[in-house]
Design brief:
The complex is a heterodimer of chains A (about 500) and B (about 120). Chain A is mainly alpha-helical and about 500 residues long. Helices cover about 80% and strands about 0% of the residues of chain A. The chains are: A mainly alpha (about 500), B mainly alpha (about 120).
Chain lengths: ~500, ~120
């Protein structure tokens, strides 16, 4: 059990290494190994979550070196929760990806899986590490594999990916710079150790600079408005299985890093009361929520619509962090979980539509409701959850965010959340209307569409059903897991 | 002026950072953006390395005359961190160049404006 924190990323990393070898023997081995690796890692994360929820955190010292000298991996409630979300969604999308990749980019089949596993290893690594510099290394592992994955596929992929690479490396460099300032002021890289040494240095300008650099860097990675410019293009032009893998979890892991910095490294008290960075994040997030929703209404391309809606939804998480009170943070964490499910489901639906019809334009979706009933049922549930209609999961995370805003007396945030729910309803009902319209205009209807094969349909429906299940289970998740995370905040 | 001379190491880092950032954001040629990126990252490497020095200290290899007196050695940790960061930077540059090759094969140019024009023509 004490090895769990390190097993989660290492399983994925190891399978990333053997996939090219196994894929050399037989192409499908690559998929099988990737799937088993992700499943194992999910099992470790779930086990880890069960252990830490009942009995405190697990700390692992790499190579037996004690912190602050050695690198430390830690599994507390927050990181175990995130690791479980990441690996669960990752596993489901990997199951889906096989047929989709075979159709879209068959010649890249084996390297795609090696890179996807590297991406997941990087993301879980960010989650479990308790070392500031180690986080940078995993951040870059995840980003590098994401750049490569996004460049495959559509013609415009490489250009979009290159723009992301430039912005992403600015983010990476800013992060290191911030960590450098922290290291030179505190003399440590271990998160807990830094946190212990910081209180005496709150007046130091170097610490202020460190906080600003780190939050700008993570803001870019998280695509928080106005640092979101890379996002719409890469989500639109990546292969559909890859958008399905990256969109739900990558920005969430960056959001996790922001929460980790907020809760563990620079203590809430500092960022809320002394250097009011959380107010800035909250204000930007509120703007981003509205901006993303309005831009999503203007899109006709389904993928772009989902990409802009991602900007809006990730800003909800930012809003929860910006509130900086227990209810807001519960809302943010619950929204990470819910949004990972809904956005994965929506991108998988988009991929399935492309798989069967090759269409992207919403105006050409007429009559799909009857032709792809299961896919569209999953789509409807996720869309309702995005809008925030009970009893879907999306309702409850917005509910906690609302409670958090009221608790803080911030009526602008309350208005933003309500208005944005309306805007979200506008762009999703437009799609639903096309899909379920009684008399589709014949020229707009794709010829012969049907539900995709079982290996693609199953993950989509599981994610769609998961959105409902999360809605029903929300009290359990909140009382048993999330309240433990925010207990330190009061 | 005096503050500038006393803190010239920070000033140099800031200048290099600005040059690199300008290269990444201001230049329209994709290859020049990569060069800017490398300058930017190098500035950060130098920032770490200068932070490791101590006046009168020597390389962090065990020396019987200094023994365990830490003030006698410069701090080796930033060097190790930067070694890792250099590896990351090389990998990033590699991926970026690979992307440039793909882009060049597809659009026959590395100028941002030309690429955008040819994108519009093809769609």
């Amino acid at each position: 059990v004490s090895h769990l924190p390190v097993l989660i990323p290492v399983t994925l990393l190891f399978s990333a290494f053997i996939i090219p070898l196994a894929g050399f023997l037989k192409r499908d081995f690559a998929f099988i190994i990737a799937f088993i690796g992700a499943l194992l890692s999910f099992a470790f994360s779930t086990l880890g979550l069960l252990v830490v929820v009942s009995g405190g955190e697990i700390r692992y010292h790499l190579g037996g070196w004690m912190p602050p000298v050695g690198i430390e991996y830690a599994l507390d409630v927050l990181s175990a929760f995130m690791a479980t979300v990441v690996t669960l969604v990752g596993t489901l999308v990997l199951l889906y990806s096989r047929r989709s990749i075979l159709q879209e980019v068959p010649e890249r089949f084996v390297p795609m899986y090696a890179l996807a596993m590297l991406l997941l290893a990087g993301l879980t690594g960010i989650v479990v590490t308790a070392d500031l510099f180690n986080l940078f290394v995993f951040l870059e592992i995840a980003s590098l594999s994401a750049y490569a994955l996004m460049a495959v596929g559509d013609d415009r992929g490489p250009v979009a990916s290159f723009r992301y690479l430039i912005l992403g490396s600015i983010a990476g460099s800013f992060y290191v710079l911030g960590v450098g300032f922290l290291y030179f002021s505190t003399g440590s890289l271990n998160m807990v150790d830094v946190a212990e040494r910081l209180p005496g240095l709150y007046d130091s300008r170097a610490v202020v600079a460190a906080a600003i650099f780190i939050f700008i860097a993570l803001g870019i990675k998280m695509a928080l408005f106005p640092l979101h410019l890379w996002l719409p293009d890469v989500y639109s032009y990546a292969p559909s299985a890859i958008s399905g893998l990256i969109a739900p979890i990558m920005t969430k892991v960056a959001a996790y890093a922001v929460i980790r910095m907020f809760v563990t490294v620079f203590q809430p008290h500092y960022l809320r009361d002394i250097l009011p960075l959380t107010s800035v994040i909250g204000a930007l997030a509120a703007t981003g929520i509205l901006y993303g929703s309005i831009m999503a209404i203007a899109q006709n391309d389904f993928r772009r619509m989902l990409a802009y809606s991602s900007i809006s939804q990730i800003a909800y998480i930012g809003l929860g962090i910006g509130l900086a009170n227990p209810l807001g943070l519960i809302g943010a964490l619950l929204h990470i979980l819910n949004h990972a499910f809904m956005k994965a489901c929506l991108f998988l639906v988009a991929g399935s539509i492309r798989f069967r019809t090759g269409e992207w334009q919403v105006s050409r979706f007429a009559g799909l409701g009857k032709k792809m009933p299961w896919t569209m049922a999953a789509f409807t549930v996720s869309a309702l959850s995005m809008i925030g209609i009970p009893p879907t999961g999306g309702f409850f995370s917005k509910w906690y965010l609302l409670l958090g805003s009221i608790d803080r007396g911030n009526w602008i945030f309350v208005a933003t959340i309500l208005l944005s729910s309306l805007l979200t309803a506008v762009y999703f009902f437009r799609v639903l209307e096309q899909v379920y319209a009684d008399h589709p205009k014949e020229e707009n209807a794709p010829m012969n569409a049907s539900d995709p094969p079982a290996s693609m349909l199953l993950p989509t429906v599981v994610l769609g059903g998961g959105v409902l299940v999360l809605g029903f289970l929300n009290t359990i998740i909140v009382t048993h897991v999330l309240e433990l995370v925010v207990a330190t905040l009061k | 002026v005096n503050a500038f001379v006393l803190n010239y190491n920070y000033a140099m880092t800031a200048i290099l950072l600005t040059i690199g950032l300008y290269g990444m954001v201001g230049k329209r040629n994709l290859l020049k953006k990569i060069i800017g990126m490398n300058i930017f990252q190098t500035a950060i490497f130098l920032f770490f390395i200068q932070g490791a020095t101590k006046p009168g200290a020597t390389v962090p290899v065990w020396d019987a005359r200094i023994s365990a007196e830490t003030a006698g050695y410069i701090n080796p940790l930033p060097h190790v961190l930067i070694l890792t960061a250099i590896v990351v930077s090389v990998a990033t540059t590699g991926v970026a160049l690979a992307l440039l090759i793909t882009i060049y094969r597809r659009y026959g140019s590395l100028e941002e404006g030309t690429i955008l024009e040819r994108m519009k023509q093809s769609s």
